[in-house]
Design brief:
The protein is of the alpha/beta class. 34% of the residues lie in helices and 20% in strands. A hairpin with an 8-residue loop joins strand 1 and strand 2. The structure holds adenosine-5'-triphosphate. This is ABC transporter ATP-binding protein.
Length: 289
């Protein structure tokens, strides 16, 4: 009984809806039969997380290319933020990494291994995704956190909750981790849901992280807490941040400005400000708000 359940949940745990608006993993499997383990694919070893996109081309439909011969290298453990106009392809770049879609040309490697040579399960099991849309099920807080890694111990669950800054919420609830959530229990705010998602990933501890920054506003205190735990989560992991607000990515090791024609600029915050190009323009525009 447990086996199939275990198998499915280890693959879909953090991708119940994929990245922003993507269909569920199972739907995806039903509608994108091309994406499957290819003959000879092997379970990936524990990855360090060095990412390489080599001349990657991709479009959702053949008549409309989105990425054209994109090259990108991210050293293991570094944080790279993607900024740029809406529709430029930031989410698309990130969604190729867990192979939600297949590249048309070129290849993507992690630690030198082509994604297509790894089993999907072993690849996706090593990528954590934090997005606005958090998947919760009817159950207790403990069960919802433990969903990050079935079989986690009580101490590990508590540690993950602590690192995700859930202590205060738990202290306020008479039943603590045993509090049911959803219709019959506590209703979580947007910020609390995000912290729960972060706790799941702390628990699972994947070497690679994709952060799809929330577009909807959280209050400043919540925002600050979430930023802190996200920064902690990103530590030591290769992290791609899809950024909508520039203020949150100043600390990134590298910022990529993605436009419809590809990666137009890259560098640190300071370098890009000094260069006086697109990033500087975006920055000035956001500072005015
Ligand atoms: P935003 O900042 O608004 O999130 P983005 O830079 O992340 O934008 P993408 O979501 O990667 O941009 O979209 C790139 C282009 O691909 C857009 O023109 C978008 O309309 C198109 N696109 C995205 N997802 C799909 C899809 N599932 N099917 C078809 N076209 C898509």
């Amino acid at each position: 009984f447990y086996r199939p359940l275990d198998k499915i949940s280890s693959v879909i745990e953090t991708y119940p809806r994929g990245i922003a608006g993507f269909r569920s993993y199972l739907n995806l499997m039903a509608t994108e039969p091309d994406i499957a383990d290819r003959p000879g694919a092997r379970p990936a070893p524990p990855l360090r997380g060095e990412l390489r996109f080599e001349k990657v081309s991709f479009g959702y439909t053949p008549d409309r290319p989105i990425l054209r011969s994109l090259d990108l290298h991210v050293e293991a453990g570094k944080t790279v933020a993607l900024v740029g106009p809406s529709g430029a392809g930031k989410t698309t770049i990130c969604s190729l990494l867990p192979r939600f879609y297949e590249v048309e040309a070129g290849r993507i490697t992690i630690d030198g291994i082509d994604l297509r040579d790894m089993t999907l399960e072993s690849l996706r099991g090593q990528i954590g995704i934090v997005q606005q849309d958090v998947f919760l099920f009817a159950g207790t807080l403990r069960e919802n956190i433990a969903y990050g890694r079935l079989g986690a111990t009580e101490a590990e669950i508590r540690e993950a909750a602590h690192r995700a800054r859930l202590d205060e919420l738990l202290a306020d609830l008479p039943l603590g981790l045993d509090t049911p959530i959803g219709e019959r229990g506590v209703k979580l705010s947007g910020g609390q849901k995000q912290r729960l998602a972060i706790a799941r990933i702390f628990l699972r501890n994947p070497p690679i992280l994709i952060l799809d920054e929330a577009t909807s506003a959280l209050d400043t205190v919540t925002e600050g807490l979430i930023q802190q735990s996200l920064a902690e989560l990103a530590e030591g992991r290769t992290t791609l941040v899809i950024a909508h607000r520039l203020a949150t990515i100043r600390g990134a090791d590298r910022i990529l400005v993605v436009t419809e024609s590809g990666i137009a600029e890259q560098g640190s915050h300071r370098e890009l400000i000094e260069a006086g190009g697109i990033y500087r323009g975006l920055h000035t525009a956001q500072s005015d708000i």
